[in-house]
């Protein structure tokens, strides 16, 4: 208990760092994932190829390797940004591949007849997409997107090892100060549990509100 | 009518001739843009002198090649041990979760949920830093705890996905629970679970690279050693260009194997009934496996 109370600001800084990483990267991942998913279902062949390559490569890349390449590699091209931005880029791109797959399988769960019916009523492509297909797809992608975001929050721990301020990294500061390492890790674990349980609660609410009744 | 390349979505009809022409135009334009981007990256690579002889020289040396191969060997070693142990742990935890005794079930659920909710890196660091374990056992233990818990969920949902009548029929024949499990449910479940298990092993293979962060001498670590060598003018980009295809290729091979198995099984009438939810990392949402 002592470890938490006397170092509350260190923990709070790390906790907020993890939250910040998670929020920004998930926004990036959702946007990129949406773009890639629309590429993967596009009628144009080269868009599909691009989306498929993006997803296949990123899904099979170890995140540590991606961090290694982005954080230490991009500066070699004269692109110097704060490490936090690099970390968000790496996390967001990595997760976008998983988001893309979740969204794509959500779109594929919408029966063909729905789109055909909408078109036969004279709806344009935009109307079909925004009024018929996406609202139905959205309902079925809530759980997989939720678990992907939870995985993202957990993966953000890797950023700490590349000297970005986040929750796991606090252990280093505290162990240098001579605090009990086991209790430090206990509070770090509690912090991660708070974050993952919060995300899962948010997506539970979304699921209750909009999910497909099963 | 031409066969539609993409008939599974509700998004659009079969394109007519004008639309096809437009799509072809988009295709050519986007290909040009992508090629332009690639050319720009290539130009950047040349411009910053990534293809100079000094930077690629180290890969000609026997010692460096041996260093890389040893790193690769260590990665595969950690993966093999972690995969075997997590299959064992997953089995044990799944047996616990399917137990008839409430206390055992409760305990197994607690363990599974805890380790699935924790970042695997936190566990690895905890074992490495707080318990002062050597890098390899720390990495293997962390990976085993996490992947074992996820696999336990896969196993459980696989066994539960076997048609109910199968278990009921076996009980009606007077089999005990152990017999029902080993003779009836598990053999059928394993077939259906195999793709999900292999996909989880891909996660384990990818996560062995976390060993780099606790100074385990694996593939990435070997790369880092070469990359930070001043004699070769810090060949960082060349190292990434050599290492990542190998890493990604290994994971891709395993992923393709999983896809191949699942495709093969889709044709097999014996396993048609059971569909196992894929092993999503750390799903805490009820109603989702």
Automatic annotation (TrEMBL), chain A:
One GO MF term attached to the UniProt entry: transmembrane transporter activity
TM spans (from-to): 23-42, 49-74, 80-100, 181-206
PROSITE patterns to which the protein is assigned, alphabetical: ABC_TM1 (PS50928)
Record bears the keyword Kinase: no
GO CC terms, sorted: ATP-binding cassette (ABC) transporter complex
Residue stretches making up the ABC transmembrane type-1 domain: 15-207
Major location (coarse): membrane
InterPro entries according to UniProt: AA_ABC_transptr_permease_3TM (IPR010065), ArtM/GltK/GlnP/TcyL/YhdX-like (IPR043429), MetI-like (IPR000515), MetI-like_sf (IPR035906)
CDD domains membership: TM_PBP2 (cd06261)
Its membrane topology: Multi-pass membrane protein
UniProt entry keywords in alphabetical sequence: Amino-acid transport, Cell membrane, Membrane, Transmembrane, Transmembrane helix, Transport
Protein localization: Cell membrane
Presence of keyword Transferase: no
Organism domain of life: Bacteria
Alphabetized Gene3D superfamilies for the sequence: MetI-like
GO biological process: amino acid transport
NCBIfam families reported for this sequence: HEQRo_perm_3TM
Family the UniProt entry places it in: Belongs to the binding-protein-dependent transport system permease family. HisMQ subfamily.
Designated name of the protein: Amino acid ABC transporter permease
Originating species: Streptomyces antnestii
TrEMBL record, chain B:
Subcellular compartments: Cell membrane
PROSITE patterns, per the entry: ABC_TM1 (PS50928)
Entry GO CC: ATP-binding cassette (ABC) transporter complex
A Pfam family reported for this protein in Swiss-Prot or TrEMBL: BPD_transp_1
Alphabetically ordered keywords of this record: Cell membrane, Membrane, Transmembrane, Transmembrane helix, Transport
Domain (ABC transmembrane type-1) ranges: 72-258
GO biological process: amino acid transport
UniProt main location, coarse: membrane
InterPro entries membership: AA_ABC_transptr_permease_3TM, ArtM/GltK/GlnP/TcyL/YhdX-like, MetI-like, MetI-like_sf
Gene Ontology molecular function: any one: transmembrane transporter activity
Residue ranges crossing the lipid bilayer per the database entry: 25-46, 76-95, 107-131, 236-258
Source superkingdom: Bacteria
Transferase is among the record's keywords: no
Membrane disposition: Multi-pass membrane protein
The family this protein is said to belong to: Belongs to the binding-protein-dependent transport system permease family.
Name of the featured protein: Amino acid ABC transporter permease
């Amino acid at each position: 208990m002592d470890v938490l109370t006397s170092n509350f600001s260190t923990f709070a800084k790390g906790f907020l760092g993890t939250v910040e990483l998670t929020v920004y990267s998930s926004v990036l991942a959702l946007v990129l994932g949406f773009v890639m998913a629309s590429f993967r279902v596009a009628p144009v062949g080269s868009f599909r190829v691009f989306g498929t390559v993006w997803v296949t490569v990123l899904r099979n890349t170890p995140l540590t390797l991606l961090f290694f390449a982005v954080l230490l590699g991009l500066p070699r091209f004269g692109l110097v940004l704060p490490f936090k931005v690099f970390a968000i880029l790496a996390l967001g791109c990595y997760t976008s591949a998983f988001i893309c797959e979740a969204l794509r399988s959500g779109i594929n769960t919408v029966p063909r007849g729905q789109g055909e019916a909408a078109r036969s009523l004279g709806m344009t492509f935009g109307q079909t997409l925004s009024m018929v297909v996406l609202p139905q797809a959205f309902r079925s992608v809530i759980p997989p997107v939720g678990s992907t975001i939870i995985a993202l929050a957990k993966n953000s721990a890797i950023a700490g090892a590349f000297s970005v301020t986040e929750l796991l990294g606090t252990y280093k500061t505290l162990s240098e100060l001579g605090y009990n390492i086991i209790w430090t890790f206990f509070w770090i674990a509690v912090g991660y549990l708070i974050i993952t349980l919060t995300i899962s609660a948010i997506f539970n609410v979304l699921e209750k509100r909009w999910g497909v009744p099963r | 009518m031409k066969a539609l390349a993409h008939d599974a979505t509700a998004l659009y009809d079969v394109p007519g001739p004008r639309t096809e022409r437009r799509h072809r135009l988009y295709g050519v334009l986007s290909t040009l843009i992508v090629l332009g981007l690639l050319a720009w990256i290539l130009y950047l690579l040349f411009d910053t002198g990534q293809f100079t002889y000094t930077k690629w020289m180290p890969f000609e040396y026997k010692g460096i090649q041996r260093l890389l191969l040893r790193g690769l060997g260590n990665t595969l070693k950690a993966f093999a041990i972690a995969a075997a142990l997590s299959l064992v742990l997953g089995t044990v935890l799944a047996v616990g979760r399917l137990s008839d005794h409430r206390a055992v079930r409760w305990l197994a659920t607690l363990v599974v949920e805890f380790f699935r909710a924790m970042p695997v890196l936190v566990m690895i660091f905890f074992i490495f830093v707080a318990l002062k374990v050597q890098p390899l056992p720390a990495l293997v233990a962390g990976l085993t705890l996490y992947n074992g818990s996820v696999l336990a969920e896969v196993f459980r949902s696989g066994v539960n996905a076997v048609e109910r009548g199968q278990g009921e029929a076996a009980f009606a024949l007077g089999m005990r629970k152990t017999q029902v499990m080993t003779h009836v449910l598990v053999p059928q479940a394993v077939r259906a679970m195999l793709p999900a298990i292999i996909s989880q092993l891909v996660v384990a293979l990818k996560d062995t690279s976390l060993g780099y962060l606790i100074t385990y001498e694996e593939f990435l670590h070997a790369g880092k050693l070469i990359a930070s060598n001043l004699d070769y003018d810090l060949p960082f980009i060349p190292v990434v260009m050599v290492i990542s295809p190998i890493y990604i290729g290994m994971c891709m091979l395993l992923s393709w194997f999983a896809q191949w198995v699942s495709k093969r099984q889709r044709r097999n009438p014996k396993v048609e009934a059971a569909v196992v939810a894929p092993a999503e990392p750390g799903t805490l949402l009820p109603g989702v496996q």
